[in-house]
Specification:
The protein is of the alpha+beta class. It is about 35% helix and about 25% strand. The strands form 6 sheets. Strands 13-12-9-10-11-14-21-19 form an 8-stranded antiparallel beta sheet, with helices on both faces. A 5-stranded parallel beta sheet has the order 3-2-1-4-5. Strand 2, helix 2 and strand 3 form a beta-alpha-beta unit. Helix 4 runs antiparallel to helix 5 and helix 12 runs antiparallel to helix 13. The protein is globular and about 60 Å long.
Amino acid sequence: MFNKVLIANRGEIAVRVIRACRELGIKTVAVFSTADRNALHAKIADEAVCIGSAASKDSYLNKKSILAACAITGADAVHPGFGFLSENAAFARNCEQCGITFIGPLPESIEMMGDKAAAKTTMKNAGVPVVPGSDGAVKSVEEALRLAKEEVGFPLLVKASAGGGGRGIRLVERYEDLESQIVAAKQEALNFFGDDDIYIERFLVSPKHIEIQVLADEYGNTVHLGERDCSMQRRNQKVIEETPSAIMTPELRDRMGAAAVNAAKACKYKNAGTVEFLLDKNGKDFFFMEMNTRIQVEHPVTEYVTGIDLVKMQIKVANGEKLPFTQEDIKLSGHSIECRVNAENPSQGFRPCPGKINALHMPGGPGVRIDGAIYQGYTITPYYDSMIAKLIVHAPTRAEAMMKMRWALAEFIVEGVDTNIDFQLDLIRDPVFEAGDYDIGYLGRKMG
């Protein structure tokens, strides 16, 4: 087993990885920016190294500083968490070159799935259903116009090949608007990703966003751990996640799970990953959307219903261990829901609200879990993502899980900064959510 793992991240995921390492008897190294000197992950790790100033590019995205921290501390592995460098193939390759194990997939797999157009081609060749659209990046506006008219149809999406996080995406409903939206999408893609390649695909009306968790080892063993319904979204950002999906059937789960396993095998995947699909409103046809080559924010709901610690499995697989189970061993038990708690003001356009936490009370009890990195007296900085905690519940049935989430949110008190807790509580009480009859556009329609 590894002697020492450096966590190249911050916030709740850094704390989560540190705790998993502790249970495996592995020493940990936290890295932090000058703005995060008092952050929880920097306080609880065995060692902590400052790697730069507050800006992400000078710290958590600074590959040289992170690798230098590995050298200084003698860390023999790096866990990238999610975000920042977690899907950066160059960083994974740099780790390999320095003799440091990257706890994640091979750089080649990251590259293959990171290019959305190339990923779609790979999936198509592997027999995984894909949304009708261009084969790879479109070479010109003229080509996009022709494809839209002759093959794809409207409505359609213009998407950045190197995109993520909802950036570089444009919905086009009319042929006359396509050229201007392509120009806008290419400019946004260039600004955020340094790459203005775009592709087009048919826009599915009122689909569900269903993702399948996969695990794979270096011996060719690949399994899926069921689905997560991530359809409750605001501006392409997930708000609430749950498993199992309220509309899932055993037959559909088997088909989507098999497709996800095929997707992982097609890119020679190793470690934990997530294959994301769009499920048509008929509840039968699904299409590959993308593969996230890292641990997901919403991984705790899968851990609750399967009893499998995904972060520990990441570490063990990276250490060369075989998966200790087969597909037949995976059983789903009960229902789990996750709400993302953000320091933001929903009534003011979800404006981020940094500041000092003057008082804090977090709910607890059987089937209630909080993954967070906050404490009373902690100051939330303005430099990073506004998510401060994840509240996860588990119960025998979906109805019981919703009830548990309601009272858990009601007991979650954060004073000193604005949060979206009341907003989340309203969503959990929403009749459409209760019925499970929501799609990726529901929240946008509800909020106008």
